Structures are given as C-alpha cells and as structure tokens.
C-alpha cells in the first residue's frame, strides 16, 4: 500500500492542465461495444479506474491500440461473450464499479449480459435499481444469483417505451440510453440526468448514427436504429480535478493557472468557490487563481450563514463537496456543508479536526465549518485516504498544514487523479511517494 509523505506550508506557482474527465471516460469507453467499427477516443485520463476498464475491454476481445499517451483506437468486432462467464471476468469486473456501464451496450448489441456486483468507493449506498428498472421497462429480464453474485440479463426483445426514472442517476441514465439506441421503436426518458458527461455521450452516439433529442435537458427522446458506426470523440477536461485545483490554490496561497478548463461546461462550480471568497479570473478557457493571504465566506443576503449543498446537475456536484469543506476550514466565516446524496462522504472530517480544523459533524450528511482565517494553520498528521475525493481533500489539507503529513492508501487517489504527485511537485509541491 503506497503512501504520500507531504511537507506542508509550501506555496505553488505555475500552470496545470486538467486530465480528461474520469466520469465521462467510463461511459464513453463502454460505448465502444455498441459498434464493430473503429472508435477513436482522445483525452483519455491515465488513471487506475480507466486503465482497468480498458484492460477489461481488451480481455473481452476488443482490439485496443494506443495512438498516444491520451488517445486510443478501439475495435469491438470480435467480442467474446463467453468471457463474461469466466472467473477472470468476475474478478476484473467486481473490482471496478465502472464495469456496470458495460451492461447497456452488451444488452443493446448482444442481447444479453452478465455482471457481478461492482466494486468502488465505500461512500454510502449506491444502488443499481435505476439501471435495472430501466432495462426491465425496455423489455429485459434479469435475475440475481446470490450464490455467484452475478446479475444475468436476457435482452432478446428490447423495445422502446416511456419511463420516469426514480432518480436522475448519471450512470443509470447513460446505461439506459446505450441500451435504448438499438432498441425497436421510441424511448422517452423523463427525469434523465443531464450532466455534461451525459451530453457528451449522447452527442457521440448521435455522430455514430443514433437518434437522440433533448440533449442537455431531463427529457430525452431516443428513436432506435438498426446499427451504429464508428466515430472519433474527445473527452472534456475533468471538472472535479479543476475544482480540486481551485481549492488547492486558495488553501496553499498559491498562484495557479488552470489551462484549457472547459469553462462553458463547469456550470456553477466557479461560482461556488467564489462564494467561499476565492478570487479567480476567467481568461478565455483558462482559470487564473491569484495568491490570496485571506478569503472570506459570503453570507446570504439576509446575513444568515451560507449553506453549500450538492444537487443533481446543474447543481453543485457531490464530488466537490469535500473540497469545499476543506477550503472553508481556512476561510474567514462559517458555512454549513450539506452532503445530500451520500451518507458516508463526510466521515473524513475527523482527520481535519485532528489537524486543528474547527468542524462540527452534525450528522452523516451535514457539517458546520468555522473558518480559522489562516490564523491557526492546520498541523500535519498521519491519516488514511478513505475514497478518491476525500483522499484529495486530505492531500490539500496536508499541503497547507504546518509540518509533515503521511497519507496512506493513496491508491484510492490514483483511481481518480493522474500522476497527481508528479504534476503538483512540478509547480512547487513537496509530495514524496513512499
């Protein structure tokens, strides 16, 4: 198990280029199964979860060619469906939560699918009901085998229909869309997720020959087609990484430029960090964050304490709530952080408290942060990364703290952030992988 040895209190200065979006990658790469023609995918992030999915596709018989460090060509003309019943598939798919995204394309093109209970972060309940209910409404029949841990799905007769999703699940919507594009007839999906990742997927599918309208809204219409052809696709920059860099700049009093940030696709993210008092300038498609000695949390118009909560898009993504919480610990003012969507993502605050932060964990979903205005810097400690986002939040806290910190289980961070230590060290951080 690898660890980071972090020497805090160091100011950074320079430029950072965000990686391709992880959450988009897991959908886009799964979609290569929808056609036997070549698919060229660019700006692919070099991170553990994405690399594991590429390895899994290769084992399934998809021919994978690496064109450059961030570009791949996929050709799924000789997929071995029997591989889905092998122990190796069980082991590979169960260790990767993103493997669930393979199911929609498998059902659409091959009319059947098998998948074990996927793995991933332990951040609370992440049910798969939305995926399976959508598949069922399209006509699929599934069975869960408790002994083997396998979901078995028969999709011999997928037919378009109307469905109202019980939650606006991004992965659920993406999976249903990928199953519906080759189903007979018209599918209507209401309460669909409309995140930029989903918009990117739908736009790519349309270039492949799908007929999807309503992209960017929560009401999607899909007219099924007989087959899809190949195309080329470039992924957006990772909005979660961009938000992490904004928070890191403020915490470490650093001057940082985030290049090619895909600003039109960031939604409310810059505004939320501005509410925390962080100054930034949008220059074309770059974000410049000047070094700030202090930043002050805004209040609501009536003077009451600011609340920052996650919400479905175009609300604030839950993946950045832990970053906002850490940033607030050194701001001037008080904020209530409300994590609505997952019940375990705030449990890392005990480490922040141990570092000297003033945080009251109200319940599994809410934490009140009393900013220290950098008058009492955090102190370095030894800690363990519980999941991807909390791990980076703790890394940012350690970089701003006095003294040295050890962060264990950084493989979690590697799952979502490409060479994070090397990239940050290049602009002045002191992070040693041990």
From TrEMBL:
Q: Which Pfam families has this protein been placed in?
A: EPSP_synthase (PF00275)
Report which reactions are catalysed by this protein.
Answer: phosphoenolpyruvate + UDP-N-acetyl-alpha-D-glucosamine = UDP-N-acetyl-3-O-(1-carboxyvinyl)-alpha-D-glucosamine + phosphate
Task: Supply the EC number(s).
Answer: 2.5.1.7
Q: Where, in this chain's numbering, is UDP-N-acetyl-alpha-D-glucosamine bound?
A: 97, 319, 341
Q: List the active-site residues.
A: 121 (proton donor)
Superkingdom assignment: Bacteria
Q: Where is it located?
A: Cytoplasm
Q: What class of enzyme is it?
A: transferase
Q: Main site of residence? A: cytoplasm
Alphabetic keyword roster: Cell cycle, Cell division, Cell shape, Cell wall biogenesis/degradation, Cytoplasm, Peptidoglycan synthesis, Transferase
The UniProt record gives the binding positions of phosphoenolpyruvate as 22-23
Keyword Nucleotide-binding attached: no
- Does the keyword field hold Cell division? yes
The record's GO molecular-function terms, alphabetically, read:
UDP-N-acetylglucosamine 1-carboxyvinyltransferase activity
Q: In which pathway does it act?
A: Cell wall biogenesis; peptidoglycan biosynthesis
Q: Where is the Enolpyruvate transferase domain?
A: 6-421
Family matches, as InterPro entries: Enolpyruvate_Tfrase_dom, Enolpyruvate_Tfrase_sf, MurA_subfamily, RNA3'P_cycl/enolpyr_Trfase_a/b, UDP_GlcNAc_COvinyl_MurA
Q: What does this protein do?
A: Cell wall formation. Adds enolpyruvyl to UDP-N-acetylglucosamine.
> What family, per the record?
Belongs to the EPSP synthase family. MurA subfamily.
What name does this protein carry? UDP-N-acetylglucosamine 1-carboxyvinyltransferase
């Amino acid at each position: 198990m690898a660890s980071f040895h972090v020497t805090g209190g160091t100011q950074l200065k320079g430029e950072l280029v965000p990686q391709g979006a992880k959450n988009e990658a897991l959908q886009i790469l799964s979609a290569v199964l929808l056609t036997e023609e070549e698919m060229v995918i660019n700006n692919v992030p070099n991170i553990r979860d994405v690399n594991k999915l590429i390895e899994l596709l290769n084992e399934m018989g998809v021919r994978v060619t690496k064109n450059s460090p961030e570009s791949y060509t996929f050709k799924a003309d000789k997929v071995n469906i029997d591989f889905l019943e092998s122990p190796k598939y069980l082991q590979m798919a169960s260790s990767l939560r993103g493997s669930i995204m393979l199911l929609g394309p498998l059902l659409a093109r091959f009319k059947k699918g098998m998948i074990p209970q996927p793995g991933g972060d332990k951040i609370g309940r992440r049910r798969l009901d939305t995926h399976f209910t959508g598949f069922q409404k399209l006509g699929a029949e599934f069975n869960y085998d408790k002994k083997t841990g396998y979901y078995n799905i028969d999709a011999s007769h997928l037919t378009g229909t109307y469905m109202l999703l019980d939650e606006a699940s991004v992965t659920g919507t993406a999976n249903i869309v990928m199953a519906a594009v080759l189903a007979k007839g018209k599918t209507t999906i209401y309460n669909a997720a409309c995140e930029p990742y989903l918009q990117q997927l739908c736009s790519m599918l349309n270039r492949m020959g799908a007929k999807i309208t309503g992209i960017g809204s929560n009401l999607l219409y899909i007219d099924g087609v007989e087959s899809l052809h190949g195309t080329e696709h470039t992924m957006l920059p990772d909005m979660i990484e961009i938000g992490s860099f904004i928070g890191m700049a403020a915490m470490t009093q650093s001057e940082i430029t985030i290049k090619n940030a895909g600003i039109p696709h960031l939604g409310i993210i810059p505004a939320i960090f501005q509410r925390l008092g962080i100054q930034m300038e949008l220059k074309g498609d770059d974000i410049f964050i000047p070094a700030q000695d202090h930043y002050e949390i805004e209040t609501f118009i009536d003077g009451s304490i600011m609340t920052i909560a996650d919400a479905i898009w175009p609300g604030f993504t839950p993946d950045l709530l832990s970053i906002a919480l850490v940033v607030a610990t050194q701001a001037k003012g008080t904020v209530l952080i409300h994590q609505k969507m997952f019940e375990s993502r705030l449990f890392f605050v005990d480490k922040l408290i141990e570092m000297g932060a003033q945080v009251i964990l109200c319940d599994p979903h809410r934490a009140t942060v009393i900013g220290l205005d950098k008058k009492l810097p955090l102190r370095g400690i030894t800690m363990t990364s519980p999941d991807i986002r909390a791990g980076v939040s703790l890394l940012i806290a350690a970089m701003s703290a006095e003294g040295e910190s050890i962060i264990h289980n950084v493989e979690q961070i590697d799952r979502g952030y490409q060479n994070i230590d090397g990239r940050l060290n290049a602009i002045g951080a002191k992070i040693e992988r041990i």
